[in-house]
Amino acid sequence: MKLRVHGIDDGQPIPETFAFGVYNEQDHMSFGPNRNPELTWEDAPEGTRSFVVLMFDPDVPSVADDVNQEGRVVPRDLPRVDFFHWVLVDIPASVNRIPEGEDSDGVRPKGKAPGPGPIGVRGVNNYTQFLAGNPDMAGTYAGYDGPCPPWNDERLHHYHFEVHALDVDSLGLSGEFDGHDVREAMKGHVLASARVTGTYTLNPDLR
């Protein structure tokens, strides 16, 4: 199976069009256009009954004490965890394209609701947890919300866009399910997968 993420070449920087946060010299970061990129895929195997789309960053600090703190850095060798930016399941087998901006167009304070969306069923991304302590932003963030890595992180962040062809019509997930729930539910049902990886940073020393 082949996946194309329009506007993002494998291994290359992600354009700010698709970012939740963009570099700002005065304040380190400001909100970006936060549009989901267009995805197209082909050559799904026979027997495919639905698709899953995931996008995640495996370079997120496991400890947030130094994140975005003046006079500190997030060290390159700090252990990292997965941060899901896009969780979309139960995409019909007849679909092989998600248009740009279809699942996200702009930063929406307090997030978007999970459940049936324009295409498929939205799960919850990790901005739900990351912004929980911010009274202006706290809420449930579902569907796509793009890159916004710590501006003081010594590590370049990588963003894996994945599409998975499944042998079931639905994973049977509902409510505020997340990327880990999807990975567990997919076990034994994946017929084929494809991935494109982009990079992004807000650290001026890495840009």
Give the tally of structural domains: 1
Gyration radius, rounded = 17 Å
> How do the SSEs run, as a string of H and E?
EEEEEEEEEHEHE
Largest sheet: 6 strands, antiparallel
The number of strands is: 11
| Strand coverage percent | 25-35%
CATH homologous superfamily assignment: PEBP-like
Low-confidence stretches: none
Backbone structural class: mainly beta
Calculate the terminal CA-CA distance, rounded to whole Å.
Answer: 32 Å
Strand order of the largest sheet: 8-9-6-5-10-11
Number of helices: 2
Given the C-alpha coordinates, what overall shape results?
A: globular
Q: In the CATH hierarchy, what is the architecture at level 2?
A: Alpha-Beta Complex
Estimate the helix proportion, in percent. under 10%
Q: Care to describe what's here?
A:
38% of the residues are buried. A hairpin with a 3-residue loop joins strand 2 and strand 3. The protein is 6% helix and 33% strand. The strands form three sheets. Strands 8-9-6-5-10-11 form a six-stranded antiparallel sheet, covered by helices on one side. It starts with a strand and ends in a 7-residue tail after the last strand. The chain has helices spanning 127-130, 179-186; strands spanning 2-5, 21-24, 28-31, 39-42, 50-61, 80-92, 97-98, 115-116, 121-122, 157-166, 190-200. The chain is globular, with a radius of gyration of 17 Å. It has a single domain, classed as Phosphatidylethanolamine-binding Protein (Alpha-Beta Complex), CATH 3.90.280. InterPro entries: PEBP, PEBP-like_sf, YbhB_YbcL/LppC-like. Residues 98-119 are annotated as: Disordered. This is Phospholipid-binding protein. It comes from Marinobacter lutaoensis.
